[in-house]
Amino acid sequence: MRASKGDQIVQHGRVVGQHDKVGKITEVLGPEGTPPYRVKFEDGHEGVCSPGPDTEIRHKDTGTMH
């Protein structure tokens, strides 16, 4: 998984009824765009995350998802 500052991260809910968490990558801490990422989520929470298989990256420049 690779991302850039400004890309959007979407963590899909893991259980029925749990909503997706959407955030903006504010800093890439790994080499060459790899995790971990510093993320500011829509609810105002900020943290460092290493995305798992339930996460997708939406690239800001192309609009594509990975």
Please count the beta strands (DSSP E, at least 2 residues each): 5
Q: Structural class of the secondary structure composition? A: mainly beta
Largest sheet: 5 strands, antiparallel
User: Average pLDDT across residues?
Assistant: 90
Rg, Cα atoms, Å: 11 Å
Pick out the low-confidence regions.
none
Helix content: under 10%
What is the general shape? globular
List the total number of helices.
Answer: 0
Order of helices and strands: EEEEE
The proportion of strand residues reads 35-45%
Termini separation comes to 7 Å
Count of separate structural domains: 1
Features:
66 residues, mainly beta, 5-stranded antiparallel sheet, DUF1918, DUF1918 domain-containing protein
Topology readout:
Blueprint lengths: L7 E4 L9 E8 L8 E5 L4 E4 L5 E4 L8
Antiparallel strand pairs: 1-2, 1-5, 2-3, 3-4
Describe this structure in words.
The protein has no helices and five strands. It is mainly beta and 66 residues long. A hairpin with a 4-residue loop joins strand 3 and strand 4.
Can I get a quick summary?
The chain is mainly beta.
